[in-house]
Amino acid sequence: MREYDCIIVGGGLAGLQAAIQMGRYSCHRVLVVDAGEGRSTLCRTYHNILGFPDGVSGEELRSKGRMQAERTGVFFEKDRIIKAGRRGEQIQLFGSSGSEYMAKTVLLATGLTDRIPAIPGLRPTLGRTVYVCPDCDGYEIQDQRTILLGAGEAGANMAMVLIQRTTELLYINHEQSPISAELHRSMKEAGVRYLEAAVQEVQQMEDGHITGVLTEDGQIYESERGFIAFGGNRVHYELAEQLGAVIADNKHVETNPRSMQAAPNVWIAGDLGLHAEQATVAMGEGSIAAIWIHKALQQMKKENKVNQI
């Protein structure tokens, strides 16, 4: 059984920023448990992060973030935590590897997984010229010919956001899911072109630059940029629920907005929470959570000293 002051579950941008902050206190035994995948691994170029005007990939941020945290003494373990519980005052975590971990405090940065259909050619373009977040990357499609691949009302609602960025927007309802008459009317009035058709292939250049899509009826629709909005993203809330956190209707986790605490000795950061899903927000929350975890651990140490007197 491995015991730590704090275990961070998830090695994405939120978890890594928290690890760096925790490591710099130099008085806690900290472990990051990460399965090696997540939203940030899909993004080839973040353009909205301070200090990277030419963009930076999620993989580069993760690699440098891990190195930065390891320099402060933070430990890393490749594993997937599949179950959580409490044993006395400590938190017990169980990995898919069969390993068990014990901690005084836990930070959950498990995030979410976007629902991305297996359309040939789509994944190599993600985070390069095809995007998922209008707040992060709406700027990238400004006045560009753009195809939105989506499903039903999730895609229609995204189209109403993106039409503010470009007048050349085609929404292809890949799954041909139903859309309300009101949304249809709103899209038409806003100038969104609409098509119900299954996409056979996303066409691209070698560098992942989208050039268009091929539908199953053999039609090619040219494009300079792309977005996806299929809905049904999976929030990884289960561990938080097992540890007593309150889960909102949309499966995100409710927290104290000041400290990011979700349950006794449990904090969260990143896309798991109820907020805008942005890399910079996730990193900020990681730092905030780490500061409050440090405070909690310091208080535990004081109480232990008093009990020993």
Question: Describe it for me?
Answer:
This protein has 309 residues and is of the alpha/beta class. 29% of the residues lie in helices and 28% in strands. It has helices at residues 13-23, 39-42, 58-71, 134-137, 152-162, 181-190, 238-242, 279-308, and strands at 2-9, 30-34, 75-78, 81-87, 90-95, 100-108, 112-113, 130-131, 146-150, 169-173, 193-196, 199-204, 210-215, 220-222, 225-229, 234-235, 261-263, 266-268. The strands form four sheets. Strands 1, 2, 3, 4, 5, 6, 17 and 18 form an eight-stranded mixed beta sheet that branches. Strands 8-15-9-10-11 form a five-stranded parallel beta sheet. Strands 12-13-14 form a three-stranded antiparallel beta sheet, with no helix packed on it. β13 and β14 (220-222) form a beta hairpin. α1 runs parallel beside α3, α1 (13-23) runs parallel beside α8 (279-308) and α5 packs parallel to α6 (181-190). The protein is elongated, with a radius of gyration of 22 Å. The chain starts with a strand and ends with a helix.
Outline of the structure:
By secondary structure, the protein is α/β, with parallel strands linked by helices.
Task: State the main characteristics.
309 residues, 8 helices, 28% strand, eight-stranded mixed sheet, alpha/beta, elongated
